């Protein structure tokens, strides 16, 4: 083959390693990546603890540089080996990857830019992409489809809870007033949701008998109302479980997909027997 | 047609726009109304925050006048275009609409009447009337029917919880006494419900070993007792879900109704093929 | 009839009114009794509030005397019209009735005996006896039978939760120590149950990182563990619900009983067609 | 028989009493052991309460010696009567038993070693081993198998909750900062889990409007998210319950096992008709 063919070949292999998980190397890359991400998040956590940061500042900074360099290499490799790099750069993961990489470089130009390091927590979402590998266990996808199926009901329910909270919050604001901490209507609504969801911080609590009576009603409401989302999700799970057992009326059709990503648009979720990308139509690597 | 006919015609059109949602104009009216109501509620919230009110008092007052004038126009239009205006004026929504409109006018006559503005939060209930438009999704009505079906069980349950709270609250009052905040029996009952529903503010907490022991029992009770409403609602949802799937034994019959309101008594929920109001018998607009 | 017959006749009628609810008079007696009991409980609540007691002490005392005299009459009537009075006197309800009646009389002899008034809260349990009237709705009895059916499972579950609490509480005592409020192992166990049941007062909260880490694990445990009783009760309700619908395999047999009480042993729950008491065999009033 | 036979015979009988529960003596041993363990745990609890320890130090120490001597005898007996003592000594229960026995002896050599007494709480786990006696009720084993069946789903769910907590915790750290108690990212994550699980201590609570808004979202999330484990466990229980009723497709096969322990490796759970240990193959006592 000529030079260009070799070049493409080399890129194609890198693409397989970075974007896919069907080859041993691809699997290793994913596992190493997960650990580096977890380590980088742990690092940010430790840096945020004042005592640790003061004592081990040098070590933490060195490790931060190691992580940053690894992320930089990964980011550049991702851009090089994809056919349409701009699609990746401006994708959700592309932006997260970029923001996770630059803070340390920026810190020499812009003071306070190290705050951006916190964006790295979002890189944890990659774990879900790699969880894709084990989705044939059916658990995650079953969970997701059950939640999606009850999303309309959950929306109506959340809407009702919010209107209820506004009404009860306004009532409590009028009944309790400033003394007990109900300083404004938004504050009262915040308190109502804290009570309705049975969280109950206690930073604000009613002190008048009328306020305590209304609070009691709100608590009993919240106690009963929690039954609604639970009931809805349980029924959805039950449906899925029965469908799987009887095999007669599948709630959803599952198709066996692999972890290959399209080399030009990087869409994923192609069927095992696919030869072209279902999104942009370009030829898939075998 | 003669003058009167034209007049009626004009009123009828207004009625269709304001009270119904079958025409494009009617739909637009509903959507605009929702936004004005949401805006008016947001306005009251902002006014209740002291800092914001101090800084932007003039702007907020102006906007308040805009909302008040819009509500006044709507209120008058509602009275004009209905055949029996007193039925509307003394209906639940009529009173809410009136109370939401007058506070600003009243504030020039009566000091402190701006407190009435809070009634506006109840106008949010109109959102549910307009939700009616999407009820063919079946979600809201299914939710409602499941809750209604288990209402007898829930009443028995709430009653048992209340008696339990009175008994346990009285016990805690005797055991703990004033020091820990259990200053009276109603206060103790309030604390018992706070604990039983797992809200747990912590504004009052037992300090004697005996009190803490009883508190532990109450908590475990509350932890187990929450299973009861959840179980009841789940079973109801399950029944409905199965009925929808098999199609054999519908739990409730659904009939297709439109959003038309009777021009004389303003009852809603007429069947699509109805020609007379099912409530007062007057002829419906086509 | 002779004197004795008339006497018995009069007692029998009183028995029917007080102990049963099949005659209009009997129903009225029950309803009035419920209201007097509710009123007496309300009275104790008001007395326990210092400000109210100081201001209206005279009125409250007068009303307390009215209630006490009514209870005294009821108690004497109950003893007179029953054939075996000692069975009633030493029954659970007999003792509660007695303790609810005497405190005011005792207060002239014994200082501080007014504390006994709190026993009156237990008279509220009579409400359940009268609820018996509506149990043909099936709700209360269905609730009870579902809870009884899962009681074995719930016991195992509660036992596991308790052992877990002891172990985790001891661990937290060692990790946190006195500073954070974990002053003794029982205190730590109390805190563990407060956390595991998601009540979370906040009177005691971990302050060391290790303690907060263990607390996090306990919370997630509690969050997951609550699924267990909910799941058990839901399944029981579901079984009952299905059994009622299909009508094939009833979980429990319901027999139509009336509210008559045996005139000699005052056992209740006789079948409609019963002529003898199922407990002591004496003849029942028609 | 010769000396050695008698010796073995005696050991075998002791083994039956200590390790098994099929003979009356064996049952008695188990019951007494449970009470001694419960008593020893109660003793540690009382010792940890400062006031009680000061007043009754002598009595508590004497009782502690009684328990320690009983545990020592039990420990030695367990080692003597088993064929392969090292298997027991280095087993989980063996180590717990040892650590529960030595603290008092150690306290004469090593100061502060009394802290080890807390390990005794773990001896409560023996209760579960003895619960084995009643597992033919099927409750405990059904509970366990349902939890095991949904463990994959629960793992995915817990994983999602943890990633969500890290992301939301980091967000809150940036939004709230030191003033409100969000001093570091781990602290913020701790708070997020406290909120998401609806525990809500209130030791840390958001004070800025933005923080309170995010807190509201987290609470509603937690309120909805609790439906997921509940739904999963409920469906599992439902499956088991239906399988038991129809008898057609058992989810798990139950085999009747006895409480005999292998005399050489002390494995338990042998079938009633077993003559050899399923683990090490040695002959079982009849």
Automatic annotation (TrEMBL), chains A, B, C, D:
Residues annotated as domain Ion transport: 27-241
Database matches in Pfam families: Ion_trans (PF00520)
Superkingdom assignment: Bacteria
InterPro entries in the cross-refs: Ion_trans_dom, VG_K_chnl
Transmembrane segments: 28-46, 58-77, 89-111, 154-175, 187-207, 213-235
The keyword Iron is annotated on this UniProt entry: no
Record Gene3D superfamilies: 1.10.287.70
Localization of this protein: Membrane
Lipid bilayer topology: Multi-pass membrane protein
SUPFAM superfamilies: Voltage-gated potassium channels
Keyword line: Ion channel, Ion transport, Membrane, Potassium, Potassium channel, Potassium transport, Transmembrane, Transmembrane helix, Transport
PANTHER family registered for this protein in UniProt: POTASSIUM VOLTAGE-GATED CHANNEL PROTEIN SHAB, VOLTAGE-GATED POTASSIUM CHANNEL
Protein name: Ion transporter
Organism for this UniProt entry: Maribacter flavus
């Amino acid at each position: 083959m000529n030079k260009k063919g070799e070049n493409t070949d080399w890129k194609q292999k890198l693409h397989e390693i970075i974007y896919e998980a069907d080859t041993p190397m691809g699997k290793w890359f994913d596992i190493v990546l997960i650990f580096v991400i977890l380590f980088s998040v742990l690092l940010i956590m430790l840096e945020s603890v004042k005592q640790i940061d003061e004592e081990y500042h040098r070590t933490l900074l060195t490790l931060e540089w190691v992580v940053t360099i690894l992320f930089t290499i990964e980011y550049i490799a991702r851009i090089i080996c994809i056919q349409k790099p701009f699609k990746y750069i401006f994708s959700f993961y592309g932006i997260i990857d970029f923001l996770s990489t630059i803070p340390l470089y920026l810190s020499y130009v812009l003071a306070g830019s190290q705050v951006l390091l916190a964006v790295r927590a979002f890189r944890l979402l990659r774990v879900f992409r790699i969880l894709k590998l084990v989705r044939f266990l059916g658990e995650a996808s079953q969970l997701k489809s059950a939640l999606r199926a009850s999303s309309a009901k959950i929306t109506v329910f959340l809407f009702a809870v919010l209107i209820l909270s506004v009404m009860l919050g306004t009532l409590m604001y009028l009944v309790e007033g400033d003394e007990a901490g109900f300083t404004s209507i938004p504050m009262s609504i915040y308190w109502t949701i804290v009570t309705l969801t049975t969280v109950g911080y206690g930073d604000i609590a009613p002190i008048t008998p009328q306020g305590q009576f209304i609070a009691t009603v709100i608590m009993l409401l919240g106690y009963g109302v929690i039954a609604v989302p639970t009931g809805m999700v349980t029924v959805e799970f039950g449906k899925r479980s029965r469908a799987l057992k009887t095999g007669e009326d599948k709630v959803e059709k599952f198709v066996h997909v692999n972890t290959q990503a399209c080399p030009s648009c990087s869409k994923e979720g192609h069927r095992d027997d696919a030869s072209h990308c279902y999104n942009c139509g370009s030829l898939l690597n075998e």
